[in-house]
Amino acid sequence: MSFARASNIGHFKRSGDPALSEGYISHFLSRVIRKKHEGDRITLKHNTIYVIPSTTGLGFVSVSALNFVLGINYQNNLLLGVAYLMIILLVVSIIYGYLNMSGAQIRLVSIQSAHRSTPPTATFELNTKARLQQLSIEHNHIKQQITLPVVEASELFSIEFEFPRGKHSLGRFKFISHFPFGLVSVWSYLYCNKCIYAYPDPVVDKSNRQEFESHNREAQLVHSSSHLSDEFKQLVPYQSGTNMHRISWRHFAKTQQLLVKDYEGETGARTLGFDFDTLEGNVEERLEKLCYLVLQAHQNNLCYALKLGPRLIKAAQGEQHKVTCLEALSDY
Amino acid sequence: MITNHLTITLSYLLITFLPVTPFGTPFNILMLLLAIWHGVMVYKKNTGVKNSLLNIIAILGIAITVISINITNTVELFVALMLLACQLKVLQATTNRQWQQIHVLNFFTIPSVFLFSQSLYVALMVMMLLGINLVAMLQLQHRASLAYSGKFTLSTVLLSMALSILLLIFMPKLPAFWQMPGPTLAKTGLTEDVDPFNIVKLAKSDELAFRAIFSDGSQPQINTPLYWRAIIHDKFDGNQWRMSNLQNVSSNLTANSNQPPYKIIAQASNLPWLYALEHAISPTKAVNNNYFGTLFRTDKITSTFEYQVQPANARQQVHMPNWQYRFYTTLPEQLNPKTQALAKQWDLSSTTTKQFIDLMQLYFVTQAFSYTLTPDVTNSEHKVDQFLFEYKNGFCGHYASSVAILLRSAGIPARLVSGYLGAEYNNQLGYFSVYQYDAHAWVEYYVPNEGWKVLDPTAWVSPDRLLGSLSEHQTLAGEFQQNLGLSLVAWSDFKAVNWLRLQLEQLDYQWTRWVLNFDQQKQASLLQALFGAKGKQWVGALVILIISVVLTLLFFYVKRAQQVKEALAIKRYRQLIGLSKKNLSAAPPKRAVDELIQQFTDHREMLQQFYADFAANRYQGKSFGKNQNKHAKNLINSIKTKAKR
């Protein structure tokens, strides 16, 4: 198992940074670029913006050369003029393309780890002094390329990732624009070292439920009970991490005080234990089932512990505990 | 977006139906049908035609194109196929990538019209179509409004055009690498073999043949007829006067230094023969003169061409060798017996060539010959007989041909010359325009001890024709205009129309002279005049420098224009907090100023005053005027000077 996982991660790293698998020069270049673009934010300016003619631009240059040859051979000044005009247009496009991007600031605002198919997202903020036209964001694990047609002053945008289950470094984002005319590619990078988790998708364990229930009596509660069936006991002050469903909004509306409804016979009474080894199926299936159990236990404000092979997460409850468990599941 | 696609199709259609692109009716119809198809597709909101269907249409289209355009006309065929391919690609395209390819290809397809015509109007049209193409490219990238895209494209193109004109003027011009086939587009009034008795579409074209530019004071007198010689015909085969074998053989003549040189800008004629008054030589590269003193170029003239003409002395020919005498008096003996008999009769009753010509003139004048552009069609084998004794009407070709035959019959060496007679003079710019309808034919005959002389029998019949251009010819006006059909010249009776025609003609002259014929020679002399012999070699570097400077200016201009201008109050505020030791950029203004007051206690009042002004401006919408600004500046300066001490 661990072998498979290691190779999996190795594979991801390679594909996440294709430059690494290229030759020595590109390796060196990518390291230089990486050093320059590492961090959570970047200001696009002369030393972080790269400009070259795009494929269309190269086609444009060859058409210009063709016009030049025709102009020379037919001694046709107008054709020559068109050839010169095209070259100058390309240079002017480079200037406009560069100025379009320069001065913009891109900042990573937040990372939202989530289930694999939710999906995990990262939110960026883009600030520009001037109008920025047509910016696309590229990433190796992106669901679909994001294009912002026009950014006037500042804009928030989220990137949805298509990661396999696991813990991932955000890696390289490429911000690219072909403004104007599509003749030039103007781009910059942002290398983000922050991590994002793609939790396994929760899957209800159907096939083995009978056996599962008999082995683990408490687990039954996960399916059958909800806090609504319990008897109301008292209101206690809100603590961060408590399930939002339990907040008494009626009190909040009246007194502006966040109080949490406490139910009879709830906490401490039952502690669940989820064990990777007791479940059936391959690694992914087991993790998905565990994920479902963790979510359900959390929703029902149950205290639960998680055992993943050698690693044991002690019984607890609350938002933080859920996140710890989910991260452990992702990182298995 | 979809309207953009349709405009591209419309540009192809416009190019196809342009009068200067001779693609033939089948091809025009094909392109029209494809355009209609695209229109219907756009209307029905369909995109992308199946490849298999397109392949069939492509094969059919190529067949139609080859049928429509003769396969020997390589240039027309190439441009037509290019148009067809682009149009099919437009029908096929669905993705942005495909559209990008089309837009880039258009930068080749649209300017290819310049191979056919380089007139000002065509140039404007091509620029407009390229502009539309660029707008479409811009809109493909980001969906901005049409107004924005149009404005952006216009400003970019205008700037780029200015710079490329600089490049065009100053970049060293290269000679042609290799010969390319030219498009066949000539509408010339001249033919290499003259057959006057065939129905000739003479005088039907009001297109320009060439322009002549004389330096000031050396213009020919207004009242001398201008005979522009082009082709010598010295063999008559019964139907046609054939071009001389020596027409394209270069020969040496001596320059006549008494007469000043002049320039001629010839329009494309698809013939190598050039025009000059009387005998001439030319210093221009690739232009030679032949034995007869007419000029020719080594290859056909497929675009406007400017050359220098130096008047030359005619070859002194006191005696004519026997073989030459026989050559210049040869006629098919069995044809035109009446004509030959009449010539022999005049020969007996005259002693000199002069007397013989007088007899001929008398005959033409007394027999009431008339000049017409629509002569009777001859049906006999003896065409000259029929003309001289029956119909007695015709145009220059008839008269010249008949007189040359009469002269040869009497044993006087004679040959036919074709070229142009007359010219329209432009008073303002001082040049002569000669049009296709000025095409003319006349006779040269040989007199021993005197040499070759000019004789224009048309003048006996229609003396008006000798001076000015045919368009100014009064008696023929009606007939002339009928022949021309729809044309501005045909309406020259109306003053406004004539004025407009002359203005357009003047504009075209300047365009031809300064844009189309700006060649290596002109460039060299311009550079010499501007920078002297020494500076010339630095011109290329200078131009690149100028262009770099302009582009750098553009860079800073756009950068400035893009930046939002900060309000004055904020600017001063930023300067102030910059003076602090702490970083106050994130602090709210009130706290920042309090911090400053703590640091610079001496300036407490001034700082408080500044904050009051600042707050009044920012939060209450009051103005931050001159006084407030002055106060803020004083504050900043005094803090600075204090800090230095």
TrEMBL record, chain B:
Residue intervals passing through the bilayer? 12-40, 52-71, 107-132, 152-171, 538-558
Q: The Transglutaminase-like domain covers which part of the protein?
A: 388-459
Q: What Pfam family is a match, any one?
A: TgpA_N
Sorted UniProt keywords: Membrane, Transmembrane, Transmembrane helix
Write down the SMART domains for this protein, in alphabetical order: TGc
Question: What is the top-level taxon of the source organism?
Answer: Bacteria
Keyword Transmembrane among UniProt keywords: yes
InterPro entries assigned:
Bact_TGase-like, Papain-like_cys_pep_sf, TgpA_N, Transglutaminase-like
> Know the name of this protein?
Transglutaminase-like domain-containing protein
Organism field: Pseudoalteromonas byunsanensis
Classification from the root reads:
Bacteria, Pseudomonadati, Pseudomonadota, Gammaproteobacteria, Alteromonadales
